[in-house]
Amino acid sequence: MTQKEEPPLSRVPRAVRVASLLSEGEELSGDDNDRGDEDEDDHAYEGVPNGGWHTSSLSLPLPSLTSEPPPHPMDGLPGGSTPITPVIKAGWLDKNPPQGSYIYQKRWVRLDADYLRYFDSNKDAYSKRFISVACISRVAAIGDQKFEVITNNRTFAFRAESDVERRAWMQALQQAVAEQRARARLSSAYLLGVPGSEQPDRAGSLELRGFKNKLYVAVVGDKVQLYKNLEEYHLGIGITFVDMSVGNVKEVDRRSFDLTTPYRIFSFSADSELEKEQWLEAMQGAIAEALSTSEVAERIWAAAPNRFCADCGAAQPDWASINLCVVICKRCAGEHRGLGAGVSKVRSLKMDKKVWTETLIELFLQLGNGAGNHFWAANVPPSEALQPSSSPGTRRRHLEAKYREGKYRRYHPLFGNQEELDKALCAAVTTTDLAETQALVGCGAGISCFSGDPEAPTPLALAEQAGQTLQMEFLRNNRTTEVPRLDSMKPLEKHYSVVLPTVSHSGFLYKTASAGKPLHDRRAREEFSRRWCVLSDGVLSYYENERAVTPNGEIRASEIVCLAVPPPDTHGFEHTFEVYTEGERLYLFGLESAELAHEWVKCIAKAFVPPLAEDLLAQDFERLGRLPYKAGLSLQQAQEGWFSLTGSELHAVFPEGPCEEPLQLRKLQELSVQGDSENQVLVLVERRRTLYIQGERRLDFMGWLGAIQKAAASLGDTLSEQQLGDSDIPVIVYRCVDYITQCGLTSEGIYRKCGQTSKTQRLLESLRQDARSVRLKEGEQHVDDVSSALKRFLRDLPDGLFTRAQRLAWLEASEIEDEEEKVSRYRELLVRLPPVNRATVKALISHLYCVQCFSDTNQMNTHNLAIVFGPTLFQTDGQDYKAGRVVEDLISHYVVVFSVDEEELRKQREEITAIVKMRVAGTASGTQHAGDFICTVYLEEKKAETEQHVKIPASMTAEELTLEILDRRNVGIREKDYWTCFEVNEREEAERPLHFAEKVLPILHGLGTDSHLVVKKHQSMEAMLLYLASRVGDTKHGMMKFREDRSLLGLGLPSGGFHDRYFILNSSCLRLYKEVRSHRPEKEWPVKSLKVYLGVKKKLRPPTCWGFTVVHETEKHEKQQWYLCCDTQMELREWFATFLFVQHDGLVWPSEPSRVSRALPEVRLGSVSLIPLRGSENEMRRSVAAFTTDPLSYRNVLLTPGLWEPGGGRNSLLASTCESCLRSLHCLPSAGGS
């Protein structure tokens, strides 16, 4: 009888959530002891006691099996590149239930090289049972078309539709068993006595929704296998397995997670949150394994030594260390990662496909495990050698000794002579002897040593000069590799490797399960377990009770990296503390007694903090530990320092140098996080120093980051608890005052008008939360909303600006009649105020002094400001006139009360003068707007006499700004004058001509303290326009010298020199190629996101004087910078012109008529131009410029007879406009004067 064909599969089954893998009524019995005689309800797990072993049953002839089995639902889904095991035979068979009755059940049976599986239906994706072919003992015929599949302790009975069909099944099974045994004899698993070909990445019991009892689950390679219990796992008889190429896992709650496939959703529950995380990690690894490709692995395995792990000897290792050039297994790869990237850079052969260039693959074929172990494992004692079954701790210790300490390496004859090692390396890299290079580097030769040849100053340059691409690849991968040290100390850990004092302590603690991520949620009291804890000999051990002999676990003090004390009542116990370890684990302990908790914290701190940092234990810290950092002038190499956080102070102890002053976190100028999620850096900028803290260990770094950000934020409502600036002024006050000074001094009714309540409240909340990160920008916030937020903040201060204790004394002082005595009293009271209050009062009154200078426009003179701010600052109901009098007196006597010196007053008046000029010009032109940004722009060069204070509205372009500066200084524009506004960066020694249509305001907001704007002639523009007019096409390509600026935060100061690279620039991107013949670009950048500056800073020693600096800002606002040099000035102009052309769609320069200065009629009185009533905006600006340049003429004009008389025509308008402004600046005599 021929085999039945499977009906065609019409469509892929939809994903549905099921309660069980079994059919209705098929539940697990829950009795794990049932082996051969299952009850009737347990017939999903059929089996009868096994029969005897008969070798003759496997001696039947094995004909070739050419029948093609029908498709299966799982075969139609796209997975990764993992090959699908071909089906040997499939078809319908009758299966005898385990109790041996005469009622057979029809099953769809599939056989492949690894498993015999049977299903309810030929459309089911997951089997009812599977039997590992490796566990089948024999296959025997028992009559009536029946046959038995016999394992070591189970027998499965099947019935075919004919003797021919039965014979075909038996032959297929016997052939599969024979082939499997042949394969197993060659595998390491067989030698270890393990059934199957692969050790599980994780195995254990899990609850599965719909099953009465827990199932035993194993993650093996790219599959998740389900078994009834541990015994059946060892027998190789399971329920089903899930191919993870179609699987996905996600968290559901604290202990549960779902494994989702297109066919079913498996809902699992673990015993703890920690176990759940470990299962998720294992299953995500299986997904990655399933979706990976083995192409690279197979090529690297072509070298025989690479087929086994370089460290433990496990077969088919699919990971590698690209700097050590060794191939390793998954378990060793995990420990290699723990060594850090400075020792071993771990990559996957199957998943990191982009890493594996042809050069790197060839390097591994030339070196690999053969040469690697010849050097690194030359002296490994047999007793210290690793095995595939070695524990993680054993692996860790062995790999530390092997690679970090170099304990087993083969020493080079020149070892210990640095100069000779460097010379030998420079000679070796010019040859093909890679093993020699590896030995020299492993024994301490300097990768970046000077070769003595200026043309090729480093070994890498020598290798490039000699055309040794494999040597170049090896050197590049080892640029940042640390030299092995025999003293077994990490370079970053020398300072705490001393013997720590012995600390002993014991008692009961309440402990939760360790976690692998920060504890954001409150841990309930029920989650803590009472444990007897003992701290002794540098080990914290915890036991089930005080009588237990064996500890449940232990934490070594040398592995503790951080100790944190959360605020009381953070978790179920009132007092808790957290212990972070190097293994990225977090342990939470709790106690009800504050004294006991404090004692435990102090004892643990003493156990892991070295004597160098013992001063940190003097304070009641909130967080204590060690972190990698960079500071001062040592930015190339990270060091490890000890830090403690106490309140808003961060104390630091560094391995070298004197004790550091604590950082006042609320006074930081900048607190930011840079880098990507894997390599984060916390940047702390104080007035005199900058500190970079690196996130080498993510778990404790995230804890430090959150704690520092919280400590740097405002802690309460009092002034002293706010974020503070350099002068002890709260940042919230500074932000508001600065914005109103720039944008709202001429706004009518400033501080009297109220902003929108909702906007004011949102703004105030954001300022209170983190004023340092709030940027008030023109157009985004209205001045009235900002002024209302400032008033609300000052009024809501619990103690008030003048404090409750001194408030009455201030009010009483206002009633003193003698002015000198009153001012003296104010000065006395000012000294008594707390420092922050005193600095804030001065800053606020100084600001109000500026505001009243514009009272002719904003209608807020001294008296009006006093009416508004008196009740606000003294928190009265407005009925007490004395509060307003105090404010009025302070503004009127500002210079005397606050001891303002001449220099400070001069700077303040310069600022007011600039604003006055803008207000006069704006009023005359009818274009006055509150909220414009005022900045300083220079003409031709940065000098005090060339500076111009310009108001920059949001719509102003670079062309408009250029014309305004030229018109102010009455500079004419000739036909071929290409006047342009440049952005100059003094630190980088570079400048960028702004495109004429660029908006100026966004550029101003991005300028640093070492940058400014200058208007000058663009000397190269004519030549660039001629080049653009004559060239063909809109692309450019050619060789340039290239150097990348490596960030100080990541890879140290810029290293290496300029190298020849081939570039192609088109309308969409800039591509960098290693050489002209290269087919794939090394780098590629979108051209629209590039900023190109002319010039390269001299300290980089550019090879030519014709260079430019290119800055690329990513979508995450991270900046990358590099330098390009051309051979000639003409080449530089051509490249720069092409950049402008492609970035601005061909419009490099505007049409000529817009650049030609107009002939302007002038109205003069004496030598001074007058502001006409009607005319262009530029005419009005020129008049204002004339007043500025000749104040004496201006004074004479203002004193001209008849000028101030009523009916004086347009002159009277000028007088009325300017008199009040300049009189407020004490430039004019008061009324009634001469």
TrEMBL record:
One of its GO terms (molecular function) is phosphatidylinositol-3,4,5-trisphosphate binding. InterPro entries: Arf-Rho-GAP_ANK-PH_domain (IPR052227), ARFGAP/RecO (IPR037278), ArfGAP_dom (IPR001164), ArfGAP_dom_sf (IPR038508), PH-like_dom_sf (IPR011993), PH_domain (IPR001849), RA_dom (IPR000159), Rho_GTPase_activation_prot (IPR008936). Keywords: Cytoplasm, GTPase activation, Metal-binding, Phosphoprotein, Repeat, Zinc, Zinc-finger. Residues 55-67 have a biased composition (Low complexity). Residues 86-178, 199-288, 502-609, 1033-1144 form the PH domain. Residues 931-1020 form the Ras-associating domain. Residues 713-898 form the Rho-GAP domain. GO terms for biological process: regulation of cell shape; signal transduction. Its main location: cytoplasm. It is found in: Cytoplasm. One of its GO terms (cellular component) is trans-Golgi network. It holds the Pfam family ArfGap. Residues 24-43 have a biased composition (Acidic residues). Residues 1-76 are annotated as: Disordered. Coiled coil: none annotated. Residues 294-419 form the Arf-GAP domain. The keyword Zinc applies. This is ArfGAP with RhoGAP domain, ankyrin repeat and PH domain 1. It comes from Prolemur simus (Greater bamboo lemur). The gene is ARAP1.
